[in-house]
Amino acid sequence: MLRRAKNLAGLMLAFTLIVSGCGRYAETVEKPAGEKPVATETPKLSVETPAPQKEPEPRELVPFAESRDFERLYGYMDQAGNIVIEPRFGSAEPFYACGLAIAGDANGKLGLIDRSGKFVVSPEANIITYSDGVFIALIYDGNRRARAYDENGAFLFEQADWIYQFSDGLSKISANGKSGYIDKTGKIVLEVPYKNTGEFCDGIAEVAMEYGGPSVLIDKQGNDLTEKVSSGLRMIKDAQTGLFGYEDTSGKRMIEPRFITASPFRDGLAIVGVEGGTYDEYLVYGIIDTQGNYVLEPEYISIRRMRNGSFAVGEKLPEDAFFPSMYVEYCKKALFSKDLKQHTDWVFLELDDLDASYTCVSDGKKIYYLDSRLNRATDLPEFEGRGLMLADGSLLRGTINEQLTVAERSGKILSKDEKLTLLEGGIKARFVTQYPHDYTTIIYPILEGLEDAWIEEQLNRFIQQEAESYVSFDGTYAEVDHYFFPDTRINCSVNIIKDLLHIELNVSDYWLGAAHPGYYWINLYVNIQDGRNFEIDHLFKSPEDARRRLSEKVNEAARKLNEESYDYYDTVEPHQIRNFQLGKDGLTVYFSLYEIAPYAAGIPEFYIPYTEIMDLIDTEGDFWKSFH
Fold it and tell me: pLDDT tens across 277-289, in order?
């Protein structure tokens, strides 16, 4: 599956790099959203007064990055390429329809900025999410707490631990022995006796007295909707078998407990799960009517009820299939109508509700919308690529081929984050995405702006080959075992410091059914003047002495970490010093998973300042001089 990176020594580019300049633009200060023009008295002139000009709509802003040696800062430009907000953030995302965007500082902390680039919520959060008009900031500074802000960045409330996402204007809460729902002021507006509470959607939430117990549907006043919505049937659980069935409101058993999992009735139908498989036990799902009869046989890997009443159904499995439980997320899906007629083939990789009427679907090649009758929506756009575009106010927001995108409902793209990066010498990098298989994602940059087109082509070909070298393109996985393929994701980035091209690859490789994924971190360095590949030995006068010193420093650091309950296996030997990443003031030596520590330690990293090894560095060598 994984192959070792090709030796860069084969890339011999004998050239002198000439690049074209990259123009810079002064920062444009825009009128803050909501600010009204000052009213003035109309002057009495003998000539006709020009009609007042309409206030221009704010330009949509696209994030970009600028590399400054080893530092990368983020800003925003318009679609014409004019820089509107100068790079000064540690991270940046496209703006929401409300006019705010999530941006970070140099320390990785997140806040909210307006279209002028001003922080309206200071950067102190570890995570920020957005739902139903509320930004939720998780802050971990020794104590976990969360704060809620409205769409203008105004503080709403704070609470310990976490705030669940808002839906239908409410957020579920379980704290201090109380369960229920809070409004956008943080006030509990509905307290319920149920321990397990679900989100409200279209005025209804699914709740249960205990985790794993029978559930019911309630409205926003906490009323049990068994009579109104669930056909008068309430779920029950047999204490002996743990199986679910249904009884009426008088307590009469109507459907005997025979389901491993079940859901409340809605519109006269309930989704249930039973044991399936001939040689291996797994759950398969079907749909029953109020008599307990199957109206959709239990032979599907998953079933999900959509807001418009249709059903997203996961593919059937052969009776003798053996598959890991996480395959449910990767299976192909089809859509069935309310009357359980299949309207589509098993083609959808992703799907979700746009609203109460439309479903957004992706077949891997296109993103489009289906109405409540599961016909192609003619009043909503279609996008080329893979992902989902969901509602953000009057706009659409989501990902297309891994790129955060904002669009009008007409289909006009307002902002697409191609991770544009301005490198040294006027060179630019834009990122593209490949899907060799449904379960494999490769993201790598394409360089632009080199005056020599042949050089640019060779470098881009090499970067692409390196990114692709960690995955098979021939469909081998599916031939070996369709249900146990690896979910592989490869992220490749580049930087140019003086004459040094740095290629960084992050590879995650998760075989379905494995206990955990594998991670690989690869750093490659190439002199863009002559194509020479640099390894760690090229940095030192005496590689043997340097490896010995570096291994001593790693062992010293590992001993200190072991005193803090870490568990490094063995003493690192000089020959194990090979993986490294350069920094502005030092280098990081790192090791593969399991090489010197258990999986829980991740990829062990040890930072060593240049000042501690300066006597070993060959400051007149080609490697050092290439980036100094």
Answer: 665 678 999 999 9
